[in-house]
Amino acid sequence: MSSINSINANIGRYRWTICALIFFATTVNYLDRQVLSLLAPDLSKEFGWTNSDYGRITAVFQFVYAISMLFAGRIIDKLGTKTGYVVAIIVWSLGAIMHAYAIPLGALTSNLLALAGLVAVPVSIAGFMVSRAVLAFGEAGNFPAAIKATAEYFPKKERSFATGIFNSGANVGAILAPLVVPWIAIHWGWQTAFILIGAVGFLWMGFWITFYDAPNKQKRLSKAELDYINSDCDQDVAKADAAEVKTSWFKLLGYRQTWAFTFGKFMTDGVWWFYLFWLPKYLEAQFGLGKADIMLPLAVLYSMTMVGSIGGGWFPTYFINKGLNPYDGRIRAMFVIALFPLVVLLAQPFGHYSYWVPVLLIGVGASAHQAWSCNIFTTVSDMFPKKAVASVVGIGGMAGGMGGVVMSILGGWLFDYYGALGQIYTGYAIMFGICAVAYLVALGIMLSLVPRYKPITDL
Fold first, then answer.
1. CB contact at 8 A, 389 and 401
2. Rounded Cα gap, residues 179 and 186, in angstroms
3. pLDDT for 261-309, tens place per residue?
4. How many CB atoms lie within 10 A of CB 277?
5. Which of 23, 276, 286, 304 is 20 to 30 A from 415 (CA-CA)?
6. What is the predicted pLDDT for the residue at 8?
7. pLDDT one-digit tens code per residue, 93-120
8. What is the pLDDT of residues 330-384, one digit of tens each?
9. Measured distance CA(152)–CA(415) in Å, rounded
């Protein structure tokens, strides 16, 4: 940390302004996606949703997010980081606001399905599915744009730390949501919660348009800082990036490095989705906590993830400073990180003492996920030239979204099945078990595909 401060003093720190903008965008991103999960226990009662119904609604978000991630990276590469981010946040902010109008939207959707001779979906479910789909389509642009901006503005040795900082915006969004959303819903209604939270993205957009530009066009960036940013950039790769040579998906899929990232995301992203979308229902189902009661435990849980996100971003530098290259240092850190989620196995056995026991244990697992996340993202910029980063992140993001679909559908089915037997405890025990071991399995697959550092130089 002291070396970073010294560098900032000598060359400037405008790159950290860009990091701050990405941090706030990610905060807004997670605020918007979490509103539904916090209102889900009450909305489920109001509209008569089963766990499987809710699982299907969340799965629509994850499925559309997954497919969109595949194209989002390419779109960001084509439009450029500045324009791509603006388009993404306009779409996802409108999608967030659409939830407030889910019932009339659902009625229209059901009527159109009926006219087409298709099976009509219940109005409330159809409306929320359409809203979630639009939200997902827009939100898919956040991480490809954020990772691309990080690759543009930071040298490799600072990228995991910068990624950890902006990725902690997800934690801040997750912390703010349970403190703000239930209060708005209690006082002004659930529709207002969707509208007010969704409108925040438009405020961020003004700052992004004002302060962001590509580094070589950025007038606020000193030459010394620009040279520092490009200091560890391979010259041949830099020339290829400048020529904007397009790389096909099929070519990217021919690299083991792409598949390592893809499998890693598939195995672990669903864990975070599960925590984000199901924890309010878990606390309501197993401990009887209402809308106002879940505010503090969820805020505490997601506050814990801040430690993992920022600490996880810094952690690889410990090994890098000992002589390992950035990729090997990251992998070493990821192994240690992957051990922490195992404590989630104890959430159910010790949960009968107090709901705070599973909250704190799951908090450790969620914190480990954020530490893992900022490192697995950075392996892409370690391995690939800048022009391909957003596309590879998009491919991995699609796989991660599909992992989330599997977790949502499986969770909804398990909770309805064991709930009907009066054993909802067992359903959550199974899901927490999957969440606990996913990271070690993912790392094992990644290392079997890419056992040593091998950057791509022929794109």
1. no
2. 12
3. 999 999 999 999 999 899 999 998 889 888 788 889 998 998 888 888 7
4. 26
5. 304
6. 54
7. 999 999 999 999 988 887 777 766 666 6
8. 888 999 999 999 999 999 998 878 899 999 999 999 999 989 988 888 888 888 8
9. 44
Tokens 């010790």 sit at which residue?
350
Cα atoms in the 13 Å half-sphere on the side-chain side of 200? 21
DSSP-derived 3-state class of residue 224: helix
Output the pTM of the full model: 0.80
> For the CA atoms of the chain, what is the radius of gyration?
22
> What pLDDT does 234 receive?
46
Angle 85-91-96 from CA coordinates, rounded to 5°: 120
Task: Print burial letters for 92-112: b (CB count within 10 Å at least 16), e (below 16).
Answer: bbbbbbbbbbbeebbeebbee
The token pair at 175 is 């912390």
Angle between helices 190-211 and 14-47 (to 10 degrees): 160
> Phi-psi category of 422—alpha, beta or left, where left has phi over 0 and alpha has psi -120 to 50?
left
CA 423 to chain centre: 31
Provide the Cα torsion 326, 266, 163, 92; round to 10°.
160
Q: Count Cβ neighbours within 10 Å for each residue of 35-53 and write b for 16 or more, e otherwise.
A: bbbbbbbbbbeebebebbb
Contacts of 379 (CB under 8 A, 6+ apart): 257, 260, 261, 327, 330, 331
Q: Report the candidate in 192, 206, 29 with the shortest Cα–Cα distance to residue 100.
A: 192
Q: What pLDDT is stored for residue 236 in this prediction? A: 37
Contact between 252 and 383 under an 8 Å Cβ cutoff? The reply is: no
327: which 2 tokens? 């990729």
- Name the token pair of 272: 């975070």
3-state percent helix, strand, coil for the chain, nearest multiple of 5: 85, 0, 15
Enter the tokens of residue 142. Answer: 């956040």
> For residue 282, which amino acid is it?
Y
